[in-house]
Amino acid sequence: MREETPLPPPVQPVAPLMPPPVAFEALPPARLARMVEAGTRLITTARLLAKTGCSIVEEMVGEEGRMHDYAHYPQTDIVDPESGARFFFHRHPMPWIGGEAGPAPGHFHCFLPAPEPASRGPRRGSGLAHIIGISIDRQGMPSGLFTTNRWVTDETWVDAPEAVRLVDRFVVELARPSMPAAIWVTAVVQLFQPQVLALLLARDEAIDAHARRFPGCDALEDEALVVPSAVAVSVEAQLASLRTTLVPRAR
To answer: Domain span at residue 40?
Structure first.
């Protein structure tokens, strides 16, 4: 597990770049079908958790019950030994995207092994590439997606053209320590796959713009740039867009 220290408030907050809306009509039918199936799995998992009186937050925090800022849940990442995909859940203020001020639910960080060779200079970091962050609302459903700058999670940087090719490898299939969490997080990444790809591309665009704005600055290590790209999401809206796109094709 990567050691992570509390994020300092940025001296000059840099607003995240928002990617363009998804052109659902341009996606192939097989992709649309996989996204619908992922959305169904996500809703089913959330419903089953609710029947036991909890949400994904309680599932991650477990018997401890009370969350502590910056603590990892679970203490070590949940890792699929076959795909190498991993994630953890935690909470801390996120003024960079206007959320999680105070006792907000938290967010997931999702990673995959970084391929060789490393992007952008000498290989550094944990050997893991941060694929996406998932913010959740107070009902325990995904409400936003975001990327992070390299220094935030000490990731090994993978430029967007290669990172987007990794996204479909993010599959966590495990019975323990939490099958519901493994299904939930995998389903979110699959349901919002087009947004994840767009956010990775926007992330690099924001990094490059920051480097041009501040010549001589190592943009990947600049603590003024925390969340390069972000977008709000809704499961209901995503599924509605998918169904609207699929219906004309079925006629």
So the answer is: 27-250
